[in-house]
Amino acid sequence: MSAFTRPGSARSRRLGALPLISLIDVVFLLLIYFLVTSDFSQAERRLPSAVQTEGGGVRAAELQPQIIEVSTDLQGLRFVVGQVVMRDQASLQAFLERLPREPGVAVRAAPDTPISGIAAALQAAKDAGFEKRSYVPRGG
Amino acid sequence: MITVDLTPMIDVVLQLIIFFMLTSRFGDLRRTEIDLPKQPGDHTQAKREPALIIDLTGDGRMLVDSRSVSLVELERLTQAGLASAGETEPFDVLIRPDRNAPAQDLDRVLSRLAAVGVRSWKLGTVEPGGEP
């Protein structure tokens, strides 16, 4: 581009000087237009996702007997498996490690339980070696 | 009169513009800030990008692509996603919940997803002390 228009060069004298300033104006306008209108953000599904805890939805009829009930009371989170009540994720994991892995484990939560409690139960199941981990929504 | 040669300056400016266009990261700015549950998650899973990401905020809103959606819209989006994924491709759903959101919000979403045929989903977490 510049070779054609450098003032005083033999070639530019032959061709006649191109109006460089207006060309630059147009180029800048185009650049600004594309800068403003382009969508640089990746679609959210292409962003690196957060670390995930897996849970598959199942119907009540498909439930296995190993169900973790998560709820809260005045003392905080409460994990119940059968008759056993646990208060923290480590105890739940230790208890789950004694259960057979094959049937899998399902998590259910009381409506007002914070989702962090559900994540804790699913994580404990995962850390205890359960491949099949499900969450059963109430009313689902 | 001294004339300034504009051409190299413009060249440099263009190079700088192109450099910043290519190196800037705008993507993360649009991601909704969510206080995810703090759990290490599962690193052994196959890295597959989720087809649908649903953010659940602490005040009970559902966001898809940072846009608030109703349950009906969510159902429609999911159906459209399932239809385009077809039979062969898996339709992965990632739910990014606020850690303090109540389980009933999650149940509401999951019931709708199950109703339209989603059988598998993942719960987004963040490693303790890590960035979401």
Radius of gyration of chain A, CA atoms, in whole angstroms: 32 Å
Number of helices of chain B: 3
CATH topology of chain B: Nucleotidyltransferase, domain 5
The tally of helices of chain A reads 5
Helix content of chain A: 25-40%
In percent terms, what proportion of residues of chain A is strand? 15-25%
Assign an overall shape of chain B.
elongated
Report the strand count of chain B.
5
CATH architecture of the largest domain in chain A: 2-Layer Sandwich
Name the features.
heterodimer, A: about 140 residues, alpha/beta, Nucleotidyltransferase, domain 5, 2 domains, 6-stranded mixed sheet, 6 strands, about 20% strand, rod-shaped, B: alpha/beta, 3 helices, about 35% helix, about 15% strand
Notes on the protein architecture:
The complex is a heterodimer of chains A (140) and B (132). With 140 residues, chain A is of the alpha/beta class. Helix content of chain A is 35%, strand content 22%. Chain A folds into 2 domains: 2-37; 56-135, Nucleotidyltransferase, domain 5 (2-Layer Sandwich). Chain A has 5 helices and 6 strands; from the N terminus they run H-H-H-E-E-E-E-H-E-H-E. A 6-stranded mixed sheet of chain A has the order 1-6-5-2-3-4. In chain A, a hairpin with a 2-residue loop joins strand 3 and strand 4 (84-86). Chain B has one domain (29-123): 2-Layer Sandwich (Nucleotidyltransferase, domain 5). Helices cover 35% and strands 17% of the residues of chain B. Chain B has 3 helices and 5 strands; from the N terminus they run αβββαβαβ. The radius of gyration of chain B is 22 Å and the shape is elongated. Chains A and B meet through helix 3, strand 1 and helix 5 of A and helix 1, strand 1, strand 4, helix 3 and strand 5 of B. Strand 1 (51-57) of chain A pairs antiparallel with strand 5 (120-125) of chain B.
